[in-house]
Every structure is written in C-alpha cells, then in structure tokens.
C-alpha cells in the first residue's frame, strides 16, 4: 500500500520532498493522494483511488461533503454514506477520509468504515479534551508546527466564541526557520476575540545558538492586529491568563517534544 500523501505547505525543501515521494510512488503497488492539495495531486496515479474535500474534484473516488462540527464531534458524508467521529476539526475529517480511502483498497466497505470510525475516540494529545472546569473546556494538543497549530485553534472555535491558546515552541533553529510561517498561520487562524499566549522555547540540550525567543513570534503576531501575550515561564501562565478566561471559553494547550507537557496540562486543568 502506498503513502496517503498530504503535503501541508510549500517549504523551501518542497522540490526535494517531491522527489522522495516520486521514488516512493515508483516502489508502491498502490498510491493514494489528496486531490485537494495542490502539491500532492501532481503525484496522482488513479483518481478513483484518491480522496478530496468538499467536492473540489468530483472525479476523485472518495469525496467528503457536508462537514459539520457540534461541540468536539464532527460528521460528514462520503458517497452518501454518513460518518460521525468523536473528535474535532476539519483536518480530522481529512485524516478520516484518507483512512477510508486506504481501507477501501483493503476491501473494507464504506459502511464498515463508518461503523468503526463512530467508535474512534482519538489519540493521546491530539485535541485531547481533559474536561470542563468552571465552565471552561481544557484541550491538550501535540500541535507543534505552524499548520498544526492553526488547525488545532480552528478545531476549537466551533465550541466557543473565544479560544485562548497557549503554545510552547521547541528548538531554537526550527523556531527561527519557521518564524514567518508561525506568524502567518496562527494570525490567520485567530478570530478577533481569540488569544495566543506563548512561553519560552523548549531547549532539549545540545549545541545551538539561542538567537530567537518565543516573544519574537508574539511581537510579530501583535503587528497583525491579533491578541498575543508572552509569558516567559510557563509556570506563571495560568495566574496571568485566569482573568482572560470566562465560562464557555476553550483553553487550548499546544506543544511537543517536551515530555513534561502532559503533566503540565494536567496541572493547568487541576488548578483552573
């Protein structure tokens, strides 16, 4: 079975990346791509095996339509077969449709796939709802690159009129390299009432030049007109953010690589 290719963004390494997937395609018996992505669709082998979102390419074999989100649950249709999942976000519909397309190649029917996905509850630290306290929903998410942070924010927006998102970037070099992308993606995802908070970049050790701060991203986001706050020490975050939260809001906690993030999120929830 080939790769379910869904390249998220056009980075400088795109040409090299495409060559890698071209090689992978040549060595695959079956290859499925996302026709809704301008880059991946160029690698299409057979449209009837591919998938797409919201009728963007009616010739694709698996087309997702009628997306809806109620709370943290989503629903959509594929070829008149209804699907319901206990996870949030349009990006998770995309992931599900990719899985359905792959399952179909293994002989799994849409009805069977729909029944299986109905009981799927997501995975650890992927839009993981820790619970609701004082009327505030707390969500823990592994989001760590620009596109995933934006997707995590958007997945919480149907739940509340305000999302207060906190993010801890990791790695000085990756953060510096993706600075413009972080600013663009997060700024575009935030609504006027939403807020993005960041704590200092997680350092895992090794040789590096600490020539960027999470505050640089925050200042850049402020320049776009969106609400952004820097709190260097994450242990000070909840105390400073408390007054910005009210009943019905979503508190979204994002970050990766740092093994203590799971415990940090639990502490935030317990002390909210």
TrEMBL record:
InterPro entries: Mur-like_cat_sf, Mur_ligase_C, Mur_ligase_C_dom_sf, Mur_ligase_cen, MurCDEF_pg_biosynth
Pfam families: Mur_ligase_C, Mur_ligase_M
Superkingdom classification of source: Bacteria
Domain Mur ligase C-terminal: 125-257
UniProt domain Mur ligase central: residue ranges: 19-103
PANTHER family per record: UDP-N-ACETYLMURAMATE--L-ALANINE LIGASE, UDP-N-ACETYLMURAMATE--L-ALANINE LIGASE-RELATED
The protein, known as: Mur ligase C-terminal domain-containing protein
Organism this protein belongs to: Niabella ginsengisoli
Top-level taxonomy: Bacteria, Pseudomonadati, Bacteroidota, Chitinophagia, Chitinophagales
């Amino acid at each position: 079975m080939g790769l379910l290719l869904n390249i998220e963004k056009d980075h400088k390494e795109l040409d090299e990346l495409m060559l890698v997937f071209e090689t992978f395609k040549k060595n695959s018996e079956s290859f499925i791509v996302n026709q809704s992505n301008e880059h991946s669709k160029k690698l299409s082998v057979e449209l009837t095996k591919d998938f797409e979102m919201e009728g963007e390419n009616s010739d694709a074999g698996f087309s997702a339509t009628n997306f809806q989100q109620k709370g943290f649950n989503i629903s959509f249709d594929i070829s008149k077969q209804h699907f319901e999942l206990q996870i949030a976000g349009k990006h998770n519909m995309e992931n599900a449709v990719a899985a359905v397309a792959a399952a179909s190649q293994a002989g799994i029917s849409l009805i069977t796939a729909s029944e299986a996905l109905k009981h799927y509850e997501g995975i650890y630290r992927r839009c993981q709802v820790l619970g609701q306290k004082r009327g505030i929903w707390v969500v823990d998410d592994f989001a760590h690159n620009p596109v995933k942070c934006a997707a995590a924010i958007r997945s919480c927006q149907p739940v509340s009129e305000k999302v207060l998102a906190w993010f801890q970037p990791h790695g000085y070099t990756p953060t510096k390299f993706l600075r413009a992308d972080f600013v663009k993606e997060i700024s575009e995802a935030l609504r006027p009432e939403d807020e993005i908070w960041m704590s200092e970049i997680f350092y895992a050790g090794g040789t590096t030049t600490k020539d960027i701060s999470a505050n640089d991203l925050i200042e850049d986001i402020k320049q776009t007109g969106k609400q952004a706050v820097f709190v260097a020490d994450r242990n000070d975050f909840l105390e400073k953010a408390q007054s910005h939260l009210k009943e019905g809001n979503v508190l979204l906690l994002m970050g990766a690589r740092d093994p203590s993030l799971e415990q940090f999120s639990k502490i935030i929830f317990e002390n909210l």
